[in-house]
Amino acid sequence: MVQHTDRQKQSINTDESIENVTFGFRDIPQIEKMMQQEDIASFITILSQPIVATLIREQTEQFRSHLKNGEGFTLKQLENQILQSLRHAAQQRLQPVINATGIMIHTNLGRAPIPVDVWRQAEDNVCRYSNLELNLAQGTRGNRMGLLPSLLNELCGSPASLLVNNNAAALTLMLMALAQGKEVLVSRGEQVQIGGGFRIPTILACSGAKLCDVGTTNITTVDDYLAAVTENTAAVLLVHTSNYFIQGFTSQPDIRELVSRLPEHVEVWVDQGSGNQESWLPGERSVAWYLDQGVDLVCFSTDKMLNSTQGGVIVGRQKPIELMAKHPLMRAFRPGKTVYALLEAQLIQRLNQQDEGQDRLQQLPHRPLDWHLARAQRLCAGLNSEFTPIKARCLVGGGTTPRKQFPTYAVRLPNWHSAADWLERLRLAKTPVIAVSQKKSALLFPISLLEGEFSEVNAILKQEMDLCSQ
What we know:
Layout: H1 6-15, H2 31-35, H3 38-41, H4 44-47, H5 49-68, H6 75-91, E1 98-99, E2 103-105, H7 116-127, E3 134-135, E4 140-141, H8 148-156, E5 160-164, H9 167-178, E6 183-187, E7 193-194, E8 198-199, H10 200-207, E9 210-214, H11 222-228, E10 233-239, H12 255-261, E11 267-273, H13 287-292, E12 297-301, E13 312-316, H14 318-325, H15 329-333, H16 337-351, H17 356-366, H18 369-379, E14 388-397, E15 406-412, H19 419-427, E16 433-434, E17 436-438, E18 441-444, H20 454-469
Parallel strand pairs: 1-16, 2-14, 6-9, 6-10, 10-11, 11-12
Antiparallel strand pairs: 3-4, 5-13, 7-8, 12-13, 14-15, 15-18, 17-18
């Protein structure tokens, strides 16, 4: 490898670009000096100084390995590799994205967005000391559930309620506290797997409860459950099939009949999943409906139809709720103060019928198509005619209505790029825009955009239009 003297380097700097000069080991700058370069230093506030230093060190070591193998590299190439590594790391940091997928509650995108006014209401309780476990009236240790049981009971029409950190934890606590070593009857058609490999049979095995298969994949009757009951049966578990549906020759038991005919020692539990409390979702049953049918316990998520932060709720009869609240596992499953503050503020809004997030969801079945078209045209404002509003279908998402899609309008992006290229370009924008590909076209769905995001997406599309017209 050619080594350059200081005088030669001075000549190089004046006669040709330093980017094209191959350097040796002694020319590699110190990590501290590289961290002072403006492009690299900007990542310190994003990633932290130790992480930036580690990534520089890793790339430098790779650079040294290449030099040992006799490969020629320039200092500019090293800098580019470092910047690429830093950008890749920065993409892993939690950051806002724009949901243009047409899926209102998108699991990969954080499920339901928390309304800004709810966040602001909770902010003071989270950023200052609070009475999380202090009884202000008596000056003694208090129950961290605070007002939440009253709010949840009012919402669901329930005698008692309990909050844990997600719905998987809620189901696990039910099984471990109330059915460990006992049988739990589950229909073969409801032994589901949801995202991340969470399977109903696996969670039953981990809890120490014994899974008993009932019925068939497509038909399970009340008599099927009754025939499977033994003295060691703790409960019937009904599971909402959140990510699929069975259509055709199929039948499910009447819930009220099932509750009335089971022996007294067998409870009925429902993993309802979405937390739906609304009547407008076609074919979906609300938490309150199940309780009205005589079900003993219902568990569900708080970051789906409740539009709140992640949490899991169990509602139902007082005695089993009290047993779960005293179980040793409850301490492992209890949420932090942020969840309590946000859910409390959200539920008060919901009960006062001021829930912005719920209003967005209720737009789907009640707004005329002209309203959806106007949103698509708003997104296309100032763009050329190649950005085309087209009729499409959208979803509530979040495992709420697997069989129901709602009519809307999407914006089809021009064929200047392939659908895959469009998706990548939008995903790598300053604020990532998450679009979808359908029938080899890239589509943006205005229905899932928040109100403040239209101008931002429109500006990104205008920039792309200007680049392609040059």
